[in-house]
Amino acid sequence: MKKTVLLAAFALGSLPAFGADPVDRVVARVNDGIVTESELDFRVERARKDPQAPDPSKLKIVVLEQMIRQKLIDDKASLLGISVLPEEIDEAVTRVKAQYGLTDDAQFDQALAGNGMDRAALRAQLHESLLMNKVLGREVPINLNDDAIRSEYERVKAERYATPEKARVSEILVRFDPRDAASKEAARTKIDEALARLKGGASFAETAGAVSEGPARDRGGDLGIVARGDLTAALDEAIFGTTAALTEPVELKDGWAILSIADRQKAGHRPFDDVKEELRKRMSEEIYDKKFGDYLTELRKASFVKIFDKDLAAQDEAAQKAQQGS
Questions:
Q1: Which domain CATH number covers 296?
Q2: What is the greatest pairwise CA distance in the chain?
Q3: Is the pTM of this model over 0.85?
Q4: Looking at 214, 241, 263, which one is the last position of a domain?
Q5: Are 227 and 254 found together in one domain?
Q6: Is pLDDT of 51 > 80?
Q7: Residue 22: what pLDDT?
Q8: Which of 33, 74, 133, 193 is buried most, with the most CB atoms less than 10 Å from its CB?
Q9: Are both 22 and 133 inside the same structural domain?
Q10: Is residue 183 situated within a structural domain?
Q11: Same domain (yes/no): 311, 246
């Protein structure tokens, strides 16, 4: 659905007055409506200015197919008695401005111009998008109950919602120069003395404040909650490879460390209630994308659509076959 709306964003826009030129070539017919060459060219030129426009070689057929789909939606909306009120477009414009933090009209106009648009084009685009959403909301219902969401949660929780082992870790770090054996030995003596003090009942925080050369010294060595994989392999193994609350000295590339481990948490999964709405949104979008494509395919089959330009007709036929095969 997002991709389709994105295409609509550059394919649609305010239109010039058509029909004045009696020789304006008809490119396509959609039921009782037509797409003229000047109309298509106008929208293609507008689309070229959009930073997210597709490859130039595909731009014309992409825009034409979007115009065909929109005409099919327009016809369906008319049949269903669905319309979009001006105040609904006003609200949508306000949401767009808020989304991008644009409160100043000059900034808003500048941002639109950067995407090859103006306010009239934006309102036209929003009208078409709102109309499409209303039609699809009526025609493509999404029915997701909690049982379906929980079933999907059980299916994907190991991949998407796994949580690693965690623990609160404090550190005493004594550094050495890895190029100097004497420096390394002196650091080892110092860390061994600190460990002996701890085993004798000294406070870890006080010892860290007095001895540690690590970044957490002023916090009593507290590194906070650490998950498996956050630190180096040596520290990971020292923390999560045993159940000890206090480690022996761990050799790092430029220091010796003693770690205090508390508040261990086993590996698990984020609770269902924490991710239910996130999962509902993702599932709804996936189902909607599939139903959206199927609905438009069936809508087009039930309608009269003919492209008179041979090259565009061939590209459209290839695209329709690719869609059916996917």
A1: 1.10.4030.10
A2: 99
A3: no
A4: 263
A5: yes
A6: no
A7: 53
A8: 74
A9: yes
A10: yes
A11: no
Domain that holds residue 218: 166-263
Do 117 and 11 sit in the same domain of this protein?
yes
**34 closest CA partner among 22, 26, 23:** 26
- CB 308, CB 26: distance < 8 Å: yes
- Check: CB of residue 42 under 8 Å from CB of residue 110: no
Distance in angstroms (rounded) separating the CA atoms of residues 259 and 254: 16
Start-to-end CA distance of the chain, whole Å, equals 16
How many structural domains comprise the chain?
2
Does 132 lie in the same domain as 38?
yes
The vertex-59 CA angle with 55 and 63, nearest 5°, equals 145
Q: Which two tokens stand for residue 292?
A: 């959206």
Average pLDDT score over residue span 10-32 = 63
Q: CA distances (Å), 130 to each of 9, 134, 239, in order? A: 12, 6, 54
Q: What would the two tokens of residue 62 be?
A: 């992409």
Token pair of 252 as six digits:
């790092």
Q: How far is CA 310 from the centre of its chain?
A: 38
What tokens appear for 76 in the block? 């369906």
Separation between Cα atoms, residue 40 and residue 62, nearest integer Å: 11
pLDDT in tens, 190-221: 999 999 999 999 999 999 999 999 999 999 99
Q: What is the four-CA torsion angle of 51, 53, 55, 57, rounded to 10 degrees?
A: -130
Cα–Cα nearest to 197, from 214, 172, 179, 224:
172
pLDDT one-digit tens code per residue, 246-267: 999 999 999 999 999 999 999 9
Compute the radius of gyration of the chain from its Cα atoms: 32
Provide the H-helix boundaries in 81-180: 86-99, 105-114, 119-139, 146-160
Residue 324 burial (CB count, 10 A): 8
Planar angle of CA 211, 216, 217, nearest 5 degrees: 25
Confidence band, pLDDT 50/70/90 cuts, at residue 18: very low
